[in-house]
Amino acid sequence: MKQASMSAKRTTYKTIVYIVCTFLAILSIFPFWIMFMNATRSTYEIQQSSIGIVPSKYFMNNWKILTGKAFSPMTGFVNSMTISVGVTILAVYFSSLTAYALMAYSWKLRQAFFSFIMAILMIPAQLSSIGFYQFIYRIGMTNKFTPLIIPAIASPAMVFFMRQYLMAALPLEIVDSARIDGSREFATFNRIILPIMKPALATQAIFTFVGSWNNLFIPLILLTNKSKYTMPIMVSLLRGDIYKTEYGSVYLGLSLTVLPLFVIYFMLAKYIIAGVALGALKE
Amino acid sequence: MRKKSVSYAKYGYIFSIPFVITFLVFSLYPIIYTLVIGFTDLRGLGVKEFHILRNSEGAIDMFGNFRTVLNNKTFTTSLKNTVIMWVANFIPQIGMALLLTAWFTNRNFKVKGQGAFKVLIYMPNIITAATIAILFNSLFGYPKGPVNDILMKLNIIDGPKNFSLQRGTARGVVAFIQFWMWYGNTMIVLIAGVLGINPHLFEAAEIDGASPTQIFFRVTLPLLRTILLYILVTSMIGGLQMFDIPKLFLNGGPDQATVTSSMFIHGQAFSGSYLYNRASAASMIVFAIIIVLSIILFQVLKDKDEIARRKYLKAQRKAARGRA
Question: How far apart are CA A204 and CA A198, in angstroms?
Fold first, then answer.
């Protein structure tokens, strides 16, 4: 009797768990599904019924309207790609180098430098944007990509992560034996340490790339020339009056910005999720 | 016997130089610059010269911008909005994340397809916030829009509802978008935290006859304290800078109900009025709020057991030394 009620309770529990999880999974997918489907439907179709479960045949038409106005997906894509690749390479390389300096050498200011990195870990960049803008304006570098890329050399959170990784993964004997073999310090870092750090580099590279790709605030204030717009700035054009009644084209424009991220995500989801979990335990 | 040894210490300095220089030039300098501009009369497009702010009688009035900003109704409203929308997103976010964590780490019942659920639930977090804001603007369209259509088909509402006209629903949707984008991230962080707890503790609790619910509230939650603090602080710092979603969802409307402090700062400096000095003062005020709140959170939620344990160890060491 008691057994039966226990098992009934378990069944109810399981059912609730699966129903809620399935609902949440659909909640994640559904908005994007509507977006992709509506990208192929005409404005008239969308006005008749705003939810399309299956694609229609107006993709080319929407594409023409979309690219015939201000939205230029290729420009946005190339610009975002340039900035994000630059940011990723600089951030990953120099954070590793800084982490290596913190980990492999004993120098007088080492502990102080580490405490300093901990202190600046969470400084909100957006709140110094006025000073940043004025500074870049004065040196005449607005509408250039350099001021968006170079600052990535100092990424305190990544230095912290890389240091934790090095402490766990790098036996200092390797460095010593490289020295005995006559390797210079900088060469040791490039040829021996960096390859060891590959897994950490990959994880951090994904997050940096996606973060940079999605960034809106700083590019928005620095890039005023249309040919320099990044993808998120391009997207913000879809909100303007020029696309007011072109529903299908707006959905298509949104889809174009989501597509590359979807490809990256579903290819690397396992590593990305593991990376989020790893990043949380960095204390 | 003399041992010849090479000192490698200098490489510690050399390898840190790029980081330090970049930080000084592109982070520290802009912060100080922003702070300084807050005390000056810098305004107008293309203006490069500026002086300490003076009032209309010509006397130096250092804190004039700060006073103006604090007395600006839009600024105080924007602060209020930011806090409301952040809290309205954070409470359900942490609640849902904790619930899912409890389910996915339940030792008696393994959820099948867990990996796929995690992948899908986390997914919105990596999509461009600007895109999501405009997508939701379309989804909540009025009078025809997917959300209205669904709600009407399910008979939840009788006629189409204009979500972007009411303050409450507009803020609610912004909070929902933030929730939807972030609860998956919080969940994965929490699950990692639970997996990091020594399994013997759970076994011991089970042997003592604790129910899964009891174990979750009495064992798991207290041990997640540090991670919860980390989530709270990072979410708060991010939340107080909320920009992309409210900006592109309804551009602050209706009736300034979704204007955030970052939108206020951006609006003062970059959308026509070029009031860099006031925008700087507003930035520094928000900055100060973030610092104060972070310190308070760390103080309140600091692991009290850890402090007690350290004190105990210290006392023991002292006693041991006394004995020796």
Answer: 10
**Is residue A200 included in any domain, yes or no?**
yes
Domain that holds residue A185: 72-237
Do the domain assignments include residue A85? Answer: yes
Per-residue DSSP letters for B240-289?
TT--HHHHHHHTT-STTTT--HHHHHHHHHHSSS--HHHHHHHHHHHHHH
Which of B117-131, B133-147, B296-310 is least confident?
Answer: B296-310
| Domain B79-258 is found in CATH 1.10.3720.10 | yes
A18-21: list long-range contacts, CB under 8 Å, 24+ apart. A18/B111, A21/B100, A21/B103, A21/B111, A21/B113, A21/B117, A21/B121
pLDDT bucket at B323, cuts 50 / 70 / 90: low
* Number of domains comprising chain A: 1
The number of C-beta contacts closer than 8 angstroms across A and B is: 275
Nearest to A269 among B119, B148, B226 (CB): B119
pLDDT tens digits, residue range A218-273?
999 999 999 999 999 999 988 877 787 888 889 999 999 999 999 999 999 988 99
B304, pLDDT greater than 70:
no
For residue A277, is it within any domain? no
Write out pLDDT tens, residues B45-64. Answer: 777 778 888 877 777 888 88
| Chain A residues with beta carbon closer than 8 angstroms to that of B180 | 27-28
Would you tell me the crossing angle of helices A129-138 and B261-270 to the nearest 10 degrees? 30
Closest by CA position to A193, among listed B245, B195, B15: B15
Residue A139 within any structural domain of the chain = yes
**Considering CB atoms only, which of A235, A273, A278 is closest to B118?**
A273
